[in-house]
Amino acid sequence: ATPATPASAATPAAPATPATPATPATPATAATPATPAAPETPATPVTPS
Questions:
Q1: pTM for the complete prediction?
Q2: What CA–CA distance (Å, rounded) separates 1 from 44?
Q3: 3-state SS record for the chain
């Protein structure tokens, strides 16, 4: 009689895929410093008539 075919060895499971490390959060965008207001334009002195 034909010898029994040996059972195929179970294929070992693929190793677990390592979890992708979390991408670190982008550092907070630094707030743009407020543009200082332009200094007040000095009033033009009234030219005496």
A1: 0.14
A2: 118
A3: CCCCCCCCCCCCCCCCCCCCCCCCCCCCCCCCCCCCCCCCCCCCCCCCC
Please report, in tens digits, the pLDDT of each residue of the chain (49 residues total).
888 877 777 778 788 888 888 888 777 777 788 888 778 877 788 887 7
Q: Which two tokens stand for residue 24?
A: 């670190």
Structure tokens at 26: 């982008």
Give, rounded to a whole angstrom, the gap between the first and last alpha carbons of the chain. 131
Amino acid, single-letter form, for residue 27: P
